[in-house]
């Protein structure tokens, strides 16, 4: 198999159902999803310890789902069924709720960083946010699978949550943004 086809040498690329310019917002959107997926893969190389096996397995699942999201955005004509579902979003919501309970309570904004894996996941989170913005722009031009947009929104929250949990499990404290007001509601005391 050859890795190069020479079909894109004039600035166009194939998508499902046609061809577009390589700088088309559709290509930018799914390309940014691919970029986020790559950062997730990098973070996974730092999560091989047993204490992170749950997160590692979830990230493998998410990498496959990001391919589904990208594929859904690459569909020009609706002759292919969409793969990104609301059930995928609900799974992320369940995992976010789980991890929010594990990490220390959050009151202020935090700085991205801490452990190496956490720092890379914060990068992935910001790239997912950019993919979400590109997808919003794309939906102004063409009809898209709305579940992709919702999935990307939840995924950035999930990545934030697990970045905090990874730091917590490693005993690395999140650094609060020093000029942050109290922006997150604290749980009422049980007294």
TrEMBL record:
SUPFAM superfamilies: Cobalamin adenosyltransferase-like (SSF89028). It is an enzyme of class 2 (transferase). Residues 3-165 form the Cobalamin adenosyltransferase-like domain. Gene3D superfamilies: Cobalamin adenosyltransferase-like. GO terms for molecular function: corrinoid adenosyltransferase activity. It catalyses: 2 cob(II)alamin + reduced [electron-transfer flavoprotein] + 2 ATP = 2 adenosylcob(III)alamin + 2 triphosphate + oxidized [electron-transfer flavoprotein] + 3 H(+); 2 cob(II)yrinate a,c diamide + reduced [electron-transfer flavoprotein] + 2 ATP = 2 adenosylcob(III)yrinate a,c-diamide + 2 triphosphate + oxidized [electron-transfer flavoprotein] + 3 H(+). Pfam families: Cob_adeno_trans. This is Corrinoid adenosyltransferase.
């Amino acid at each position: 198999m050859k890795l190069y086809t020479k079909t894109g040498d004039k600035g166009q690329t194939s998508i499902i159902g046609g061809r577009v310019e390589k700088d088309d917002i559709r290509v930018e959107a799914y390309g940014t999803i691919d970029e986020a997926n790559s950062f997730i893969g990098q973070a996974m190389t730092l999560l091989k310890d047993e204490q992170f096996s749950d997160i590692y397995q979830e990230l493998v699942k998410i990498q496959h789902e990001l391919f589904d999201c990208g594929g859904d955005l690459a569909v020009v004509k609706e002759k292919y069924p969409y793969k990104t579902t609301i059930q995928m979003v609900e799974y992320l919501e369940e995992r976010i709720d789980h991890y929010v309970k594990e990490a220390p309570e959050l009151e202020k904004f935090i700085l991205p960083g801490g452990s190496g894996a956490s720092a890379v996941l914060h990068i992935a989170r910001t790239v997912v946010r950019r993919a979400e913005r590109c997808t919003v722009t794309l939906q102004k031009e063409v009809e898209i699978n709305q579940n992709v947009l919702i999935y990307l929104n939840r995924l950035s929250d999930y990545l934030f949550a697990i970045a905090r949990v990874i730091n917590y499990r490693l005993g690395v404290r999140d650094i609060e943004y020093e000029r942050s007001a109290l922006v997150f509601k604290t749980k009422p005391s049980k007294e």
